[in-house]
Structure formats: structure tokens, C-alpha cells
Design a protein that fits this description.
It contains 13 helices and eleven strands. Strands 2, 3, 4, 5, 8 and 9 form a six-stranded mixed β-sheet that branches. A five-stranded antiparallel β-sheet has the order 1-11-10-6-7, covered by helices on one side.
Length: 462
Amino acid sequence: MLRGQVADIIIGSVFLVIGFTACAVAAIRRRTGARIFAWLGIWSALYGSVQLSQSQAIVAVSPHWFQFTAPYANRAMTYLLLVAGSLSFWELSLGTLRSFIQVTACAGMAIAIAGVSLFAFPGLSGKLTLFANLFGACVLFTLTVVVAVPALSRKYLVLPDRGVLAAGILIFAVEASYNSLSNALGFKTLRILDHLGFAALLLSFAYVALRLVLANEHRLLSVEKELAIAREIQTSILPRSAPEMNHARISAAYRPMTEVAGDFYEFLSVDLNRSGFLVADVCGHGVPAALVASMLKVAVQMVAACANDPGAVLCGLNRVLSGLLRGQLVSAAYLWLDTENHLALYAAAGHPPLLHWRNNELRQIESNGLLFGVKQEFADYPVFTMQTMPGDRFLLYTDGVTEPENVGGEPFGDKRLEDIVRISQTHSPAALSDRMLAEIRHWQPASLSQQDDITLIVIDVI
């Protein structure tokens, strides 16, 4: 028995190993669109399993439960071959053909369920097998026509090399037609032809899939290189260091969530006693937000002349950006510090409040106008005036400091931010920034990356 079936056993094992290997490749390279390898792997593994489950030699030496379930499993896997093949083709399809293949896969799944259910009724099961074969032949004919006709393949398929897939599917179609015709006429065909026809189809699919994955990886590498360059450019437009001021110590922390960020900060330093501090946060993440943040650099230069007036600075920024944001929204906060005259002025545009620490008391200062990007002819940004004294501490930050969530979905929140400020009153601005960032990282689940861009500026009056 074994001598007569050794070829089918070897071929089935080969297809099974190929299937597992393709699924492993899909799992390893899932970032580069390798899902087609998963369907190809399942397709190949099903074909190999069908061959092995048909082997009387393997069934004879198998446990009793496998001997009992082997016919059911073989019938189910035979029907599911059409589903796996359709989903493999679905990964290459576009438009109407994609919808057609989805319907085909659903119909194939329904046939598989019905086929297994009717296994107890041999007469009905045989008729369903004939129907399934006719249905599969119609699907194969449709796909063959789409691949063979250049105009149709350009419209409905994503193919880096149409010729290889066309050759594979034509070989399989010819072999299947020859096999069906021979059986109808009572001629016996070599089983090796079935295996060779399926191998030609599977290898042509694998070649096309490999070309697609390599192209996706090349595009991904190009995008990553461009993002790295974009990050270098964005970093170059941020201040290289905090300004030197008499009677003030300053620290700035900037942690983008991705390669490029929507947060922005700038210093408008006039002299050793006077300087402005701007923090802005563009709604959203990634490249669009980073482009708007870069536009802020140019806009800030246009309002530098009124650096001592926070209201005028924010009005000017809103005026410059209003025609450029294209639906994007930006929040901003601006603090002007004059250590010679012991004066601080603050205004904001829809931004989290300024934190002011004095005499063991922490208060939130909100002096907000409209977000940049909200259409209004005359936006007003009220200015809050404070007298400063040694020991004062100011914190400007974006919502990436307070909004990160823990495993339970609880945000970091203003309360924890204020607690850290209270217990760090003897720390330097740089030490407070480091502690704040460490607490935020600890708050977030270790399995997740940073949830938002973070910008934090700490200013101590000394």
C-alpha cells in the first residue's frame, strides 16, 4: 500500500511544508503587505493536507479518531481550496473584480459547510461535489480571462509581472480541463499532472507575491529615509538651547511621538532680561501636522517685533496662518518674561493652562482665545499680567503631558502633573523635566509606544 502511494505522500508533504513556510514569512514580514503569502500558505497547506488525508497508508497507521474524521476533513479541505485560492487572488484584485472574488469566497465557504453537512447522505453529497466543481470551473474561467487579457488585467489587477501569472493560471486551466474531459470520456490520467498543474499556479502566484512584497519594502525604506530627513529638518528649526537670562533658569524638553511631530516651541529672546516663550500643538500627528508646525517657524519670525505683547503675537500668528491651515487646528501659548521689571505676561489660543508655582501654591492660569484655524475675522487673545518674584516657577506644556492613558484607559491628568511639580519643588528645571518624562513613560503600558507628542518648558525665577 505504501509503495503505491509514496509519491502522493511526498508531494503532499512538500506542499504542506511550503504552506507552513509561506505562513511564517507572512507573519515575519507583516509590515510590508505580505498577507498574500498567508493565503498562499493556507492554499498550499490545504492542498498538501488533502493529498495526505487521501492516503490509505497514512490513515491506516493513524489513531482511531483520525481514521474516523479523515473523510470529513478531506471533504472540507477539498471545498476550502476554492476559498483559499479566491482570497489569494483577492489580494491582487481591484474594483469590481475584488467584489466578485469576495462573493466567490463567501459562496465557496457556504458550499464547504453544506458539503460537510451532507456527508452523511452520499447521494446528495455527490451532486454537491459536481456543483462545486462547476462553480470552481466558472470562477477559474473568469480569472483566466481577466489575467490573459491585458486591458482587463491593467484595470482589475495589481500585477508587477502579468506574464508569469498568466502562464501559471493557463497551465493550471489547461490541466484541469484535460483532467475533466478525460474523466468524462473514461480515460485515466496521471495524478502527477494534477500536482504539476497546481504547482505551476502556486509558484506563479508566489513569484508575483514576492515581487509585490519587495516593491512594498522598497517603498517603505524610501518613506523611512524621507521621514528621517524630515525629522532632521524639523529638529533643525527648533531652538538648539534655552536662552540665557539674568535671574532665570530655563529647560525645554521635546519628545515627538513619531519621526516627525506636530508640536513646536520657540524662544523670542530680546536681551538677557527679556524673552518670550511660545509652545504650539497642531491637532493630529505625522507629516501633515509636522508641515503646519514647520510653517509656525516662519510665522513666528513675522511677529517677532511685538514679542513683548502676547496678545499681539497670537493675533499675528493667527492672521498669518489663517489662510494656510486648510482645516487644521493649532493651539498655542505664549509667555513673556521680563526679569528686570519683575513682570510676566501670558496669553493662549485654546491651549492647556500655564502652571505657576509660588510659595508652595500651584495655580492654573487660563487666558485663552480661539484656536488658530477657527475662522473669525477678529480673534481676541486676552493677556494675563503677573508680578514675578524669586522662587516662581512656570510650566508651559502640550496635552501630550496630561493625556497619555494607562492600561485601564485612565489619563495621566492634571492632578498627577501638579503632584509631580509639588514634590519636585527643590529640583532644577532640567531635573523636573526628566522626572516628568519618566513618570509619563511609567504611566503608559510598556507594550505601547508614546501616545502623543510631548513638549515641556520649565522656567524658574531666581
